[in-house]
Amino acid sequence: MTTIFQIMIGIILLALGVYGILVHWWALVDLASVVIPVCLVFFGVLSVLTGISTIRENRQE
């Protein structure tokens, strides 16, 4: 019984999510224009720190 309830809730949430995306698509564009540069900066910093860590490990060997 709980599995059926979970599936029903999931379908309802999916429908509401799709409706929200279709009605407020412009908000997704605004969100993407903010999230993408933030992700690029985050992964860039992560990449630099990983490179520095690798260089330090190679020097210690």
UniProtKB/TrEMBL annotation:
Q: Which organism is it from?
A: Desulfamplus magnetovallimortis
Q: What is this protein called?
A: Putative membrane protein, magnetosome protein MamI. Homolog to mamI of MV-1
In terms of NCBIfam families, this protein maps to: MamI
Keyword Transmembrane assigned: yes
Keyword entries, A-Z:
Membrane, Transmembrane, Transmembrane helix
Q: Which gene encodes it?
A: mamI-5
Q: Which residues cross the membrane?
A: 7-28, 34-55
